[in-house]
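Structure first, sequence second, as always.
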């Protein structure tokens, strides 16, 4: 980016997103959380499988039972 670039974000401070747990303003030292308590709550949710990232394997298992049976065309 050059100094003459008229970017609308240039010169404006980035607005911090609120804490994802309690929605209070985030602490820059603990971003994206507002406190160590909220960070620990989030970690506990990941460790107890309350949060999960879907994988392609999960989708493949669901699709196996819904398709039509394969036929031998020979």
């Amino acid at each position: 980016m050059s100094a003459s670039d008229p970017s609308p974000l240039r010169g404006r401070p980035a607005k911090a997103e609120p804490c994802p747990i309690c929605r209070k303003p985030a602490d820059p030292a603990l971003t994206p959380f507002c406190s160590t308590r909220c960070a620990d709550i989030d970690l506990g949710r990941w460790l107890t499988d309350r949060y999960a990232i879907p994988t392609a394997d999960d989708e493949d298992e669901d699709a196996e039972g819904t398709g039509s049976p394969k036929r031998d065309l020979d």
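Margin note: The helical segments are 36-47, 56-64.
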